[in-house]
């Protein structure tokens, strides 16, 4: 079994789990601390819900009821994150089939191709997540540093950092999976040659032939008629 495939699988599956946590989180952006101290309220917004809480402990969430009224960058991030999670899921399946320790997937050559495919899928998943999180973060920072923007300003939420971390893990795991093909080619299977069956007489002749005092005798002379007279 290739030593590089185990850490690659751990990184890929771990990145996939981080992407699932990021897409389901509601903390993609949060209200700034300056406004939170004054109003004693906190607002969290995600891809699917808007949540608000106060100092008394009450917490309420409201989903986005319609798709058409959602801003364009949120819809783009939704599509990218859904693609990232889907690719990460299929990448995990391909990675399991491409492992040398599993009995499915065919020969070592076929497993190497499946492992390379899993690496490519993991890399695409990480790129989709990286693009979606960066697009969302760019919108937040643009509004935050715009002096003409008079509406509520937000800061980067924890979900963005989780998404970036998951994307990095997927990309690293995918690269390791792609480079594991060279490791498979360097360790071919051991071959054994079959020389055919060896007769007992030939082995005895070889054994006695090594001794200097061995002489071949004619068995017909040993059992002559005169021997029984």
TrEMBL record:
It holds the Pfam family PMP22_Claudin. It comes from the Eukaryota. Claudins function as major constituents of the tight junction complexes that regulate the permeability of epithelia. It comes from Nannospalax galili (Northern Israeli blind subterranean mole rat). GO terms for molecular function: structural molecule activity. PANTHER family: CLAUDIN. The keyword Phosphoprotein does not apply. Signal peptide: none annotated. PROSITE patterns: CLAUDIN. It is a multi-pass membrane protein. The chain crosses the membrane at residues 80-102, 114-137, 157-181. The keyword Cell membrane applies. This is Claudin. One of its GO terms (cellular component) is bicellular tight junction.
């Amino acid at each position: 079994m290739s030593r590089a495939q185990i850490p690659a699988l751990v990184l890929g599956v771990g990145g996939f789990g981080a992407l699932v946590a990021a897409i389901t989180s509601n903390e993609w952006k949060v209200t700034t601390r300056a406004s939170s101290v004054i109003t004693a309220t906190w607002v969290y917004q995600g891809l699917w819900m808007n949540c608000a809480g106060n100092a008394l402990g009450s917490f309420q969430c409201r989903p986005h009821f319609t798709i058409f009224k959602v801003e364009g960058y949120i819809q783009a991030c939704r599509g990218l994150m859904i693609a990232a999670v889907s690719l990460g899921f299929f990448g995990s399946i391909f990675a399991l089939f491409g492992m040398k320790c599993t009995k499915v997937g065919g020969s070592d050559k076929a497993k190497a191709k499946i492992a390379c495919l899993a690496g490519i899928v993991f890399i695409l998943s990480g790129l989709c997540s990286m693009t979606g999180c960066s697009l969302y973060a760019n919108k937040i920072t643009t509004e935050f540093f715009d002096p003409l923007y008079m509406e509520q300003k937000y800061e980067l939420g924890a979900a963005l950092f989780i998404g970036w971390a998951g994307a990095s893990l997927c990309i690293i795991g995918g690269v390791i999976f792609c480079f594991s093909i060279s490791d498979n080619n360097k360790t071919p299977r051991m071959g054994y040659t079959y020389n055919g069956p060896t007769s007992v007489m030939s082995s005895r002749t070889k054994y006695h032939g090594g001794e200097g005092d061995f002489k071949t005798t004619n068995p017909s002379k040993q059992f002559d008629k005169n021997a029984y007279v």
